[in-house]
Records
---
Amino acid sequence: MIIKGIQKVTLLDFPGRVACTVFTGGCNFRCPFCQNSELVIGSASIPSISVEDVFDLLKKRRGLLDGICISGGEPLLQSDIESFIDECHNLGYLVKLDTNGYEYERLAALISNGKLDYVAMDIKSSPERYGVLAGMPDFNIEPILKSVELLKACGIEHEFRTTVVHELHSADDFEYIGRWLKGEKHYFLQKFVDSGEILQPNLSAPSDETMNEYLRIVQRYIPDAEKRM
């Protein structure tokens, strides 16, 4: 595992759990609004954290933490992620995965083997515009479609979420997303925040009014959809 960062405690990343979050280096997307761009294109220059140090932290915090969130970057690019998850489970922790869903085969294997307790998958946009939001002109939407259907049917706790960018999203996108995810329980809209290290300059957050408009659109299909700040 190439681990480039760790948040030792979080009440937000793993719903209903006190957790820590590790951030893996490298990603197969180049989202123009990515807030962790240093993990996407500059991870080689960031010192790595050994898995032994992560496990030492988990051992010391038994009884204080419930779980670990594996985020990125894109964690499913890590060839040894399954053995890392196994050790987290051996130490008594629940495991949440944050993913863009593009590595469908690896996601399916982890779910089939009972390795994941919670999955959060990013939904970038409507399928027709996915490549623009993923920063990949020749984008193959098929793995994303398969990952969405997998999570809908798998029976493990999961959520879908979209980071909303004023310049990159429209009401039509959320009309499609609402129909695409119809019947799901957990879907969140989260407002873009400029971390100062995004890949494309001059992007901005939508207004509260626009966020509410998009939320009303998706709630026609996903009544429990929420905004997450």
---
Amino acid sequence: MFDKKLFQEKIEPRCAYCTKGATLEEGRILCPKKGVMPAGGRCSAFQYDPLKRVPPKPAALDTSRLDTADFRLD
């Protein structure tokens, strides 16, 4: 379905972002093979779905060490 090379080479299998799993509630996934599983669970039927994966939040910018001279074009 998706080309893994477009996203990441090595994906750690987790039920939370498997194409076969359906989210029941926070932390629980319904798997057609294993039944109700934790979101961090996995099985041999794992198929990666990049649309289900939530990327980590970006780091906050530390502006405490910046001043106006940093933004001047000389």
---
Amino acid sequence: MLEIILYNSEKKTDWDTFIRNSKNGTFLFYRDFMEYHQNRFTDYSIMVYEKKKLLAVLPANRVEDEIFSHQGLTYGGIVFKNFAKVKQINKIFEAVLNFLNKEDLKTFTLKLLPSKYNHFQSSALEYLLFQHRAKLIRRDMNFFIPLQRNPKQHKNKKKIYNKDFVKDFSIQQENGFAVFWEKLLRPILQEKYNADPVHSIREIEMLAARFPENIKQFNLYYKNKLVAGMTLFIEQQQKVVKSQYGTVNEEGKSLKALDFLYLELIKKYKELGFNYFDLGITNEADGYSYNGGLTNYKEELGGIPISLDRYQLSL
């Protein structure tokens, strides 16, 4: 018989060890990452045991009578340790649903993990959601470059290597994030969208200190002037690198500096043996439309759309 418990701080070592050894876990699921914004969310993460052995975890938060696959994370879903068979996954899923029903919850919204982060490579959970009449409430196109398959990049992107000014480019991996945040990222987001980055400078520096191998900053300088930059989230377990933030100023745009930075980082992580470069989504309006220009940009870099789905289940 399965035992379901809610996560508490005494279980931190068990949780983190499980994520480290799982087939579809990423560094975003470690407690030190999930809890950087704990003041914004009521944690409701679930742990599934059988005879004191941890079988699965669900990073989640609760809002009144609703439970969400954690809203503070880019993706989520149920994390499994091994290549479980459908029967076992079904058993775990049913146990979670039974637990939630007893907790007087009305809806369960599950944001799934994109397949490129998933060594598990099982769609059993999607089937079980369908079987339980879950409603697909959002689908985003998440673009991935298959690094080890000679990605098809548009010739217009590669033309930059023929430009004479490239010799004045310098890409530097920085120890800090403040220069990029304060000189490029925040001002440009404020000007274009009247918005701030999801992570404050304090938060990104704290997270980078906790996960120095997973969060890195690369800035591009032209004649010693900062013109573009990119913050990478690097998933060592799954060999996926994600451009979490990337932006360029007006001078850099005229020089196609962001193109150059992307191409160089794509090359770098391909040579390091990574499988995919995650370019993020291009969707708007809750997924019902997409930004055509941004989609074309990511396709010209070699990106291929992979579904990032969100389901809602009535309890």
